[in-house]
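# step 3/5: fold
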Amino acid sequence: MDTAMWKKKLVRLMEDNRGLIVLLFCLPASFVFDLALQLRNWFNRTFLSAPQRHDARVRHIQSQVRQCNDLPETEKKKMCTSRPNWLSLSITFFRKDLCHKIPIPLYDILELKEEVMTVRVEPMVTVGDITRYLIPKGYTLAVTLEIADATLGGLAFGVGMTTYSHKVGLYQETIAAYEVVLGDGSLVRVTKDNEYSDLFYCLPWSHGTLGFLVALELQIIPVKPYVKMEYIPINGQKEYCDKIRELSGAMDKDKQTPDFVEATIFSKHEAVLMVGHFANVKNAEEEAQINHVARWYKPWFYKHVEGFLNKPPSQEFIPLREYLLRHNRAIFWVVESMIPFGNNPLFRLLFGWLLPPKPAFLKFTTTPGIRAMTFTKQVFQDIVLPINALEKQIDVAEEIFDAYPILVYPCRIYNHGPHTGQLRPPRPDQMCPGTDWGMFNDLGVYGVPGPVKRKERFDAVSAMRKMEKFTHDVGGYPFLYADIFMDRKEFEEMFDLVAYERARKKYHAIDAFPHLYDKVKPEIDVFQVGKEYMDPL
C-alpha cells in the first residue's frame, strides 16, 4: 500500500474517532495551555501593564521600524508583527519567517471618554477584556464580537460584525480614530475628518499591510444588565427571510428596530429568529426567566435555540455579558464537529468546564498535514452578502456545502463613495430608500460539509470557488480571516483596491509591508492539497 493510501486511512481513522481524541488529549492539553496563557497575561498586566508608558512603548516601535528602514538593501524585508500565527483567529498561517518581526506589546485599556462615548485601547486588548471592563460601568462596544479571544486591533484591521450591526454597520463604522505607525516610522492619528481621511477608509480590511496599529478609539453605547430575548420559530424559507428583512429595517429607514437581530437556519425551510432588547429585570416573574446560557453545564447556545423550533414564540432574560459571548463555548457550532457528543448533558456536567478548546491551542498544534486535512474536510466561512438575495444565499450554500446550521446577522453596509476603501458601494437595488446604506448580512457557514459526513466525494476547491463566484456576482465579500481561493486578478475584481494602492504608495507601505493579497492568501497550495485529499477511500 503506497504512502498516500496510508495517509488517507490515518485521516479516516482520526475522523472516525475525533471526539475521543479531542476529549482525552486536546481538551486537557488545551486547558493547561490556556492556564499558561492566563498566567502570562496576568504577569503582563500585573508587572508590565502601564498605560502611562504607552507613549514610550510606541516610540520604541517607531525606533524598530526606522532601524529596519536603515538596513542595507541586501538585508531589507517586509515587516509584520511578531505575534505568533497561532495566537490569531485567522485560519491561515502567514509566512512571518520571511519578514522582519516587530513586537507590539500593547495590551492596555487607556482611557474611557464618557463625554464623547468612546474608549481608547491598545490593539491587543481582547473582547473578553473590554466586556469585563465596560459592562460593570454600564457600557459596551457598539459592535462586540462573540469570541472572547478576538483582539480589538485585529478586528479593526480585519472586520467584525454582530447582532447590533443592523443599527450601526460593520465594526469599522464604530471606530472614531486609529493611531498608526507608518512604514517610515512616523506616528499618525487617523480620523475620517483629518488630513489622513483617505487612510481612514483603507485601514479596515487591510490586515496590517498599511502600518502598525498602536491604539484605537471605539464607540461605546449605554446598556442595561440583561437582554430580553424573544425566540421566533418560522417554517418556510420565504417567510423567515421576509421576517429577517422586516425586523432589521432593511427597506424601511424609519422602522423601530430591536437592539439585536439574528437568525439560526437549521434547514432550508426551518429557522429560529432571535430578537433582543436591553432590559432590566423588574419583578419575580421576570427573575424566574433569567437563563445563564454561558454556564458550563448549560446546552450549547445553538442547541438551546434549536429547542424552540417546535414551540410557540418564547422569551427569556440573559445577563448581558453572557449574551454577548453566547457562542463562545461551542465556537458557534464548530465544536460539534470535534466532539459529536459534546452537548450530551452528562458530558457538559463533567467536562463542559473544559470548553471551548482554545483556538490558539488548536492552531499551535496544527501541523502542515493537519492543516491540509482540515482545509479539505471542513468549512469556515463568513461572507457579507446583500440581504435582498438571502433566499439565493441559502440555496447556494446548501447546494455547495449542505452544512447546517447557518448563521445570519443583518448588517448595514454604508456607501462612502467610490474608491474610499476595499468595499465597493452597495448597488442601487441594495440600498435602503432614503439612506446612505444598504442592508447586507453575514452568512456564517461552519463545520463539516454534508458530503464529507456521508463519506462522499467533496471537492473543497471547486466548492469554494463556486461560492466566491456567487459572492462576486451579487456584490458581496468573504471575510479574509478564512481561506480564499481567488487568484490575484479575481481578488482585485472582488475588492476595490484603487484607494488601497494609493494609500500604500502615499504612506510608505509598498516597501515596508506585504500586499493585502499576499497577506491573506492561503500559505498552502490549495489546488494541489484539494486534489490530494478529495477522493474518498
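# step 4/5: annotate
Residues 18-48 form the longest helix (31 residues).
# step 5/5: archive (pending)
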